[in-house]
Write a structure and sequence with these properties.
single chain; alpha+beta; Thrombin, subunit H; Pdz3 Domain; six-stranded antiparallel barrel; 9 helices; 27 strands; about 25% helix
Amino acid sequence: MRRFVAYGPAIVVLMTCAVALLAAPAIFARFAHVQTAADVRLARQVISDDDVLERIDRAVASIADSVRPSVVHITPPRSARGFSFGGASGAGWAFDEDGHIVTNAHVVRGAERFSVEFADGRVATASLVGADPYTDVAVIKVDISTPLIPMPRAGNVPPRQGERVFAFGSPFGFKFSMSEGIISGLGRAPQTASPFGGYTNFIQTDAAVNPGNSGGPLINVRAEVVGMNVAIATGADTAGSEASSGDSAGISFAIPVATVEPIVNQLIATGRVSRGFLGVSFAPFGIERLQTDTQFVRGLRVSDVVEDGPAQTAGLRAGDIITQILGQPVTDSEILSALIGGSPAGAVIPLTVYSSGDESIRDVSVTLGAMPDEVLAQRSAGSMMAQLGAIIGARRQRSDQTPPIITGVAPNSIADEAGLESGQTVTHVNNVPVETAQDVFVELIRHDALIGRSVTLGVSGPTEDDAAQDVTFRLVP
């Protein structure tokens, strides 16, 4: 039987399949485009129906509008050594209508008069009211006819981790800038961020802060000051340094407004700070942790109490553990020192104290005394010598022992350029006789050497044939 083979239908099927294969990508692409277009229209409709992001933008812009007129740009004066005090630039913020502006002490260190610029372009002259190097807070007063617009403070509302904040200032000279972040941590004590062994109880944020942000306000979502920019951690210096050097690495620090405000009030009232004194010393091992049958206790153990001092008068005893101060947990000795040192003499401070003897917790109210200059001298002597570039007193000699001999001078340091020499004995500070190294540091503090004012040391030696001489210097960069 003869077979007939027809190839036509097969060819038609094959061609159809080929066309389908060739056309399929275009068909699928067209379908994907239609689906994407539909998704875009839906997304745009959602954005149109819900203006939450627009409302957030309007709120943030309103914060900027409300803060910017109260922020000033401070161009620091030049030092005698050719460098700017405190870095390339700084910032400040209006404290009251009377012309008082708050900034960092390191921004204005070493000068008495400043030029400040407002956001509307006005430039005015300001003079120094007072500065506290231990908290890095300073007040200047601007000479201007119109009242300032003061910044509201959030002193009664403590900040919380996770809250949104905005940092204002002049980073790298870009005036009246604003950056956004959150509060990353509280009660931070970066080792090198505070000059002259000062007090730290900083707010940590991830808002971008760079040189020029120093002294600018840190603002919450209610447009209130929660802190003042003071320091940054960089890749090269994770311990924290003044926000006048280095670049932002996502970690910056601010002085809490609860610390700033009482210092500012004292500087405006008297030009100086009377610092609170508790009258206790702590065990060398820092924070102590105890687990009792009923509770977990964490705090600082008191190793000694000054006789007839504020703490002893309030009933504190050696061996007590301070667990809270002003309602804040004591997690670091620097936090307790900062809260005490940032409070004025005469302030009544609530403490929570654990007594290991009877395993009891009690609340104690302490009326702070005035911190002796000798205590401040002990705290800042090392930093003062590092800035000066000279060692005063033997390395193993107690600061209250005699005599105050200069035992070392670093080449090209402030001391070296002023003419101090190893082997000389310090006899006077600004014509005030001194007998010990501690006397020297106390008088340097009393004569405002820490805020850059000029001081004169009377020195003799190093040999008996050398005539006594006066050496003048300033502790500025």
